[in-house]
Each structure stands twice: as structure tokens, then as C-alpha cells.
Amino acid sequence: MRRPHWPRRVFAQLLLSQTVVTVGVTAVTAGLFLAPVSRELDRDAMQRALSIARVTAQDEAIARAAEQRDAVAVQRDAEQIRLATGASFVVVTDRDGIRLSHTDPARIGQRVSTDPEPALRGESVTAIQRGTLGRTARGKVPLRAADGRIVGEVSVGISDDSIRHRLADMAAGILLCAGAGLAAGLAATLVLARRLKRRTHNIAVADISALLIEREAMLHGIREGVVALDARGRIRLANDEAVRLLALPDGAVGRPVDQVIPAGRLADVLAGRITGTDLPAVRDDRVLVVNRMATADGGAVTTLRDRTELESLVRELDNTRSLTEALRAQDHEHANRMHTLLGLLELGRHEQAAEFISEQSGSHAALAAEVSAQVQDPHVAALLAGKTAVAAERGVRLTVSPDSHLPDAAVDPRALVTVVGNLVDNALDAAAPGPGGALPAGEVFYRTRPAVRVALRAEGAALVVEVADSGPGVPAELRGRIFDEGWSSKRAPAHRPRGLGLAMVARLVERAGGTVAVGDDPLGGARFTVVLPEALHIAPVEA
């Protein structure tokens, strides 16, 4: 014989278990309620029998007849009382416990079946006893003569059948109420089970466990950050990658986004105040691409992709493309110079040819020597050397301020290169003529050559970085927005978004405890000033 299987579906298990519990609770409750009712009915029957016995014992005629052992008179009066009160029996005995009355006349003259001694001693007795008429609730009192002498006993009984009849009448109402409660409980259980069926998509309990295990493995195994929010904007779930990318503190789960993420574009995107797809945002020195999808319960699931390395590669590709174009232009210029040198030699002007060669070869060496003398940090020096070639190709003169000095003592060279590189790129974009530069198409070219000036000054452990350009500058009303993530006054190219460079600079400077400001410069454009208070190692002073 096959054993019945426990249902696999969640709603079926809930329905079955709740039904069993509801039926069991209802049955136990009804039983617990009926038990004291039965005892109360027994107690009420005993008190009623006792009251009838006391009233009977107060009848002087019965007392005189019992004292005289006149069974006929006692039987007549006792039967009248029994019929009038509805008692099962009214038994009167003499001083020896011999019946003088009984519902069965054949038993008159016999000793009672239960002990009469307590009543004959003057005590009132109530009890549930079994006698010749079966189980009854009894009340016994002494029968006294006019002078107070005990001349017998009065015993009155209420049959158990009448008690059970009353209990049955009351039980019907109790069971009816219990049935109504059971029906209501089963209906509520059915509604709850149907709702749970919809919410769980009718899946099995084992499937829930498997789904939970798979979800945990998937969330913590993927390389994208995942953050789930509830309807009130509190973080409900964050996988390991999201914790790393967002630098979430311990205990972030259960707290609102605005309490764990600094105010800015990233917090606005996560909270849904900024909508869209593939939205760029910055967290410290990381560039993130954020997508947010609302859920049916009013919450949202946000995915985060780390675009920092890709952004660096795109920037390096742009630099490589610019360097390639610069080399192509230099190759063309080198050919012109060789033609010029060949012409000077053919004309026999050997001295002019020698001067021309010295002048051309010394200019690049002088520029490299100037940069390396002022900027001793190899990372920043290499960056400026490369940017100088790119600037030259774009028609911009990039110079390092004569009072610049940067020792090879940077605490975080990578962050310093990011700050200087983004500021120089922004200045080149503003100063460079042509498409993508400061001048729109059709506008008159600069009267003077576009320029970018970089100044690096070490002041103890602090470092001051200034980057100025000859572009159109930044209007005063926009200076509070240029550091916002995703905001830019220039059209974004197809291969990468705008509005991240200055935002990244602001985040890095803020993390280092520094300041960044923008103002006007004598070159005609904007000047960005960054102060990093603990950017350099201070060499120990020998005693």
C-alpha cells in the first residue's frame, strides 16, 4: 500500500496544515468549553435537589408522619412534591434509614441504597451518586420534628438523563458557534493559500530552497554590482561587487540610499530621481554605468558596471589617436624640413643649413629638458610630455609655468595623474580651435595662438595644481554645475559620455581632503585650481 505523500506546493501545504490546525483548535476549544459546562450543570442539579429536599424537610406533616412511621401519608405527600418539582425521586426515611416513600412502592420499607448517616447526624449532603434509579444528582438533609429532634432523612434526586439533555441542548449551540468559527477559519485559510499561490507562482517548497541557493550563488558570482531597494528606498540587498563599487559601509542593508551614498548624481540615480539607461556616475575614482528597473512591489533593482578601466582605455585610445595624428603631421613637417635642408645645401649655403639643423634638433630637447627639470615625478612628466605633443597637433601651445616644481614624492601618483590629465584634457578641449574646441564652425579664429598653461607647486606636503586655458571660460552661473556627473557644455562623442572628467577630479580631491575651484585667467579663459593638502611625502630633516 502506497503511503500518502505530503503536497509539494507551498499553497497546498499551507492549506492542509492550516486546515488541520483550525479543526484541531476548534475541537479542543469546544471540548474545553463543554467540560466546565457539564460540571456546572451537575453542580446546578445538586443545588436544585438540595433546595427541594430542604423545602420537603420543612413540611411538619411529613415530619409527624415520618416520626409515626406512617408510610402511606409520607408516600402521598412526597409524590406530590416530586410531581410538582419534576425531581426524579423524593425519598423520606425514618431514623434507621428505612424508606417511607419511593417512586417504586415495592421498595418502601427497605433500607436506602446509599449511606444515610451524614444526614441523620444533621449534615446537608450534595453528591452525584448511583442508586437504584441509576446515576443522579442528589441532595440530602435531616428531617426534624417540631422540637428539633431528627426523626429521619429527606433525599431528593435529579436524574442524569435530564442533566445530559440540558447539556445536549447547550452543546448544540456551542457546536454551532464552533462550526461557524471553523468555517470562517477555513475560508480565511483558503483565501490566504490562494494569495500565497499567486505570490509564489505555484512553486514547490524544494524549489524555493533551490532558488534561494542559486540566487545567492548568482548574485555573489557575477561581476556586476546589484542593489535591490524596497518601496521606501531602503537597501534590501547588495551583492559583493556592489559593496565594492559603491564602497558601502557595514550595516548598509536596511538603510535608505541617501544615508549610505554621498549626495550627488549617483545617489539620485539609485533613488530614481534621475531616470534613463546606461547612466554614467562617479564614485570616488571609479566611473560606473548605472541602470535602474522598477519592480512590481514599488521597489527597484539597480545594476552597476565598472567602466573605469574602459574609460581609461578610451582615453588612452584618444591620446594614441592624437599622437598618431601628431606624428603624421610631424612626418609631413619633417619632409618639408628635409626639402628645405636639401635646398640650402644645393644652393651652397652650408652655414645656414647647419644653423637650421641645430635649431630644429635643439627645440624638442629643450622642451623635454624643461619639463623634466620642473616636474621630477616621472608619471606626471611623461603625461605632460605626451599632452604637449597632442596639444601641438591640435594647434594649442601647452606650457609649464616657470615657477612650477614637483618633486618625485607623490603619495598617490595614479590619482595625481588622473587629476592633472583630466584638467589638461578639459583645457585642451576648451582652447583648441575647430570642431570640438572653443570656437563653433564659422566663427573667426583666435587672433593669438590658443594656449594652455600648467602650474605645479609643492608647498610642504601640500600640492597646488593650476591649469589655465585661453578658451571662452566658464560663466559664473555655470561654475556650480561643471563638477556634476554627466553635465557638460560640449557635445558627447559617440564612443564615450561627457561630464565625467571634472566630476572624477572633484571626487578625488574631496576624498583627499582638498579643494577645487574655477575662476578667470589672464589667458582669457578659465583657470582650475586644485589644492591637495597631503599629496607629497616630506623628507625627514637630518639633525
TrEMBL record:
Q: What is its EC number?
A: 2.7.13.3
Q: What is its main location?
A: membrane
Gene3D superfamilies named in the record:
1.10.287.130, Histidine kinase-like ATPase, C-terminal domain, PAS domain
Q: Where is the signal peptide?
A: none
Which catalytic reaction applies to this protein? ATP + protein L-histidine = ADP + protein N-phospho-L-histidine
- Give every Histidine kinase domain span: 391-536
Tell me where it resides. Cell membrane
Q: By its UniProt entry, which Pfam families does this protein fall under?
A: HATPase_c (PF02518), sCache_3_2 (PF17203), SPOB_a (PF14689)
Keywords assigned by UniProt, alphabetized: ATP-binding, Cell membrane, Kinase, Membrane, Nucleotide-binding, Phosphoprotein, Transferase, Transmembrane, Transmembrane helix, Two-component regulatory system
Keyword Transmembrane helix applies:
yes
Q: Does the keyword Repressor apply?
A: no
Which Gene Ontology molecular-function terms are recorded? kinase activity
- Annotated InterPro entries: HATPase_C_sf, HATPase_dom, His_kinase_dom, PAS, PAS-like_dom_sf, sCache_3, Sensor-like_sf, Sig_transdc_His_kin-like_C
Source organism (scientific name): Kitasatospora terrestris
TM ranges are 170-193
Instruction: Specify the protein name.
Output: histidine kinase
Bilayer topology = Multi-pass membrane protein
